[in-house]
Write a structure and sequence with these properties.
Distance between the termini: 36 Å
CATH architecture of the largest domain: 3-Layer(aba) Sandwich
CATH superfamily of the largest domain: NAD(P)-binding Rossmann-like Domain
Bound molecules: NADP nicotinamide-adenine-dinucleotide phosphate, ligand F7E
Shape: globular
Helix content: 25-40%
Strand order of the largest sheet: 3-2-1-4-5-6-11
Order of helices and strands: EHEEHEHHEHEEHEEEHEEHEHH
Number of strands: 13
Structural class: alpha/beta
Number of domains: 2
CATH topology of the largest domain: Rossmann fold
Radius of gyration: 19 Å
Strand content: 15-25%
Length: 321
Amino acid sequence: MKTALITGITGQDGSYLSEFLISKGYNVVGLVRRNSTVDQRSRLDHLAAPVRKKLALEYGDLLDIPSLVLTLKKHRPAEVYNLAAQSHVKISFDQPIFTAQATGLGALNLLEAIRISDLECRFYQASSSEMFGKAEQSPQNERTPFHPRSPYGISKVFAHWATINYRESYGMWNSCGILFNHESPRRGENFVTRKITLQANRIAAGLADTLYLGNMNAKRDWGFAGDYVEAMWLMLQHSKPDDFVIATGETHSVEEFCKIAFGHLGLDYKKYVKTDQAYMRPAEVELLCGDAGKARAELGWTPKVPFPQLVKMMVDADKAR
Ligand code: NAP
Ligand code: F7E
C-alpha cells in the first residue's frame, strides 16, 4: 500500500486529490498549519470515518523545515504532492514577501527536506498558468516562455525552476504540472468563479442586489478541479519525470461566466453586476488558453467537464447550500 504526502491538503485541490488517492488504495498524509480554529479542515469533513483511517494529518508548514523533515521521516511517502501556496494572485500584491516565502521558497524547503531525509520519492510541484502571464503565444504549451505578472506568478516560476533544477542536479523524480484555472464547488470564496456563483444565488434569494467585480474582460481557460487532480497522479505514474500543461483548450471571459451563472438562475447578469476599481490588479493577465496536447498524448489525460456544466455545477452547489 503506497503512502502519499499532500501539502495544502486543506485547500480545494488537496481535498479532491485526497479523495482520489484514497479511492486508489493509498494511505494519505496531509500537512496542516496550526490555526486558531479547525474550520480550515471543512473540505475534508466528508472524509471522516470509515475512510478516516486512510488519512493522517500532521502539523507543519512549508516555512518550517524541521516539520517537513519530521513528517517525511515518520511516513516515508512514495509520492509527495506540493500543493501548498499562498495562491491568490490579487492578495500576492498585498503580501509579496510572504507569497514569495510560501509559494516560492516553500517548494525549495520541501525539496531540501526530501534531499536531507535521503528519501526516494516521486515529487509533484503545483506550477501554474500564471507563469505565462503576458503570454507571447496562444495557446500556451510547455515551450511557451514565461512572463509572470504578479508576485504569485514570479514565486511559481522560482518553485518551477527549483523543481527542475533538483531533477537535473540530484536525479530526483520531480514533475511539474502547469495547471490552468480549475474550479469546483469547493473553490475559495474570493476567486472570481465562486464569488460569482455565491452572490448570484444570494441575489436570486433576495438577500443581496449587486455583485461588484474587477476586470470582466479577462479570459481564462477554466476546467474542473476533480479532473485536474487525476492529471497530477498520472504524472507521477508516468515512465519518466517531466512537465505537463493541463488545460481544456477553451477560453472564456469573466463576463461569459456571469452570463451563464445568472442565466441558470433565471436572471439577467447585466442588471446586477457592477465594476469596482478595488478588484482591479496592478498588472493583469488578460488572456490564458492552454494546449494540453502533450498530456493527452503521453498520459492519456483529457478534461471531462465542459465549461457550461462547470458553471452550472457551482451555481447548483451554492444554491443547495
Ligand atoms: P488553495 O485552495 O488556496 O489551497 C492552498 C493550500 O495551501 C491550503 O491548504 C493552505 O492551508 C496551504 N498553505 C498555504 N501556505 C502554506 C504554508 N506556508 N505551509 C503549509 N501549507 C500552506 O489552493 P488550490 O486552488 O487548492 O491550489 C492548489 C495548488 O495549485 C496551489 O499551489 C496553487 O497555487 C496551485 N494552482 C492552483 C490553480 C487553480 O486554478 N486552483 C491553478 C494552478 C496552480 P490553509 O488552509 O491553512 O490556508
Ligand atoms: O481571477 C478577474 C481577475 O482570482 C480570474 C488561482 O487559482 O488561477 C487562479 O488565479 C480573473 C482575473 O484567479 C474579480 O482580474 C474580475 O483576471 O479567480 P481569480 P486567477 O487570478 O486567474 C491560477 C491559474 C492560479 O494558479 C492561482 O492560484 O478574474 N476578476 N473581478 C476577479 N478576480 C477576483 N478574484 N475577484 C474579482 O472580483
